[in-house]
Amino acid sequence: GSKSKVTVVGSGNWGSVAAKLIASNTLKLNSFHDEVRMWVFEETLQTGEKLTDVINKTNENVKYLPGIKLGKNVIADPDLDNAVKDANMLVFVTPHQFMEGICKRLVGKVREDVEAISLIKGMEVKMEGPCMISNLISEQLGINCSVLMGANIANEIAVEKFSEATVGYRDNREIAEQWVKLFSTPYFMVTPVQDVEGVELCGTLKNIVAIAAGFVDGLDMGNNTKAAIMRIGLREMRAFSKLLFSSVRDGTFFESCGVADTFYLRKLIYFGSKTITFVAVGGRNRKVAEAFARNGGKRSFDDLEAEMLQGQKLQGVSTAREVYEVLSHRGWLELFPLFATVHEICVGRLPPSAIVEYSEKKPRLS
Ligand code: NAD
Ligand code: 13P
Known about the structure:
41% of the residues lie in helices and 16% in strands. It has helices spanning 13-26, 51-58, 80-84, 99-106, 133-141, 154-158, 173-183, 196-218, 223-244, 284-294, 301-309, 316-330, 337-346, and strands spanning 4-9, 32-39, 74-77, 89-92, 115-118, 123-126, 129-132, 144-149, 163-168, 188-193, 268-271, 274-277. The longest helix is centred in the middle third of the chain and has 23 residues, at 196-218. It is globular. Bound molecules: nicotinamide-adenine-dinucleotide (NAD) and 1,3-dihydroxyacetonephosphate.
């Protein structure tokens, strides 16, 4: 049969790594065209050059993934319509806040039979209620959309350190197998699970837990507190997901997208009475939240994001706000003290230390 053409919509830190992973596979697999198109939100670098030109010249995304060759078959394209028009498989991987606009621009521009996958952690909250990004893509474009989530710090996968990921699919196992084939490498092990909502909610809600974990780090609370906060966070992840979608499976939380993605422990090593702290690699939400707490909440997240991430985007702060909206709207605030507290700290209504003032707020969840 004919070969599938793959386009990656997005070219940030994870988008670039996704293109690299996929491009290494399309070269090897006969069922795919070698070339992988990558849509770039065009910008002019400090040197005056266009990012797209530099990527195509050097084969590197010098701004969002410096030092890593993407593969010669990755072609950067600043024209969104052109990048998607012939694609049979679309990989969406931009910060979630841009997806509504991107979807609007794509209406009527993609093949009717195109298959999509979202690597995006986040949700939109509308009048009718929360809408997951894969659902936004499905509904706006009238296409099927799977998801891929996991404990996947992009910079580590870029240097080919082993990790796992979970593909969530709706009902077509063959399509899931296609995505697994397209992403799997010896250092990237992908498992399909028939639970789109569960997988996507895991990836999305984990970013709120990562913010909470960062607060604990910034307060120097230590390992036990961190573990407690992550356990409580995981429990709220499961409870929230199941309240929103009764189809969500418990097993999903034991996949890479669930429990593994919340395990970003900062290393604390004890030498006698002294604690030596290693700055954790990766995990931008955790890292910026740590800085926020160290500053006693006096510098805003926007400020810290701009300074620490140089154009990369945090998802956890806006996700906490979006989830808070859902919680207050549905009268669930008291059921989710951790999620609610993270938002209240982010907006300055509570101090960072509120993250561990827990005993009086224990929720009555099973
Ligand atoms: P990023 O954080 O590097 O964001 C920068 C990207 O956003 C750049 O490509 C930039 O051009 C683009 N951008 C800026 N303004 C824009 C606009 N107005 N319209 C469209 N694009 C714009 O992006 P990322 O790391 O690739 O993250 C994308 C998604 O992947 C997020 O949902 C994130 O949670 C998820 N994710 C990231 C990682 C990671 O380690 N980076 C891992 C797993 C999942
Ligand atoms: P950050 O966006 O916090 O860096 O997390 C990346 C991620 O989702 C890893 O799985």
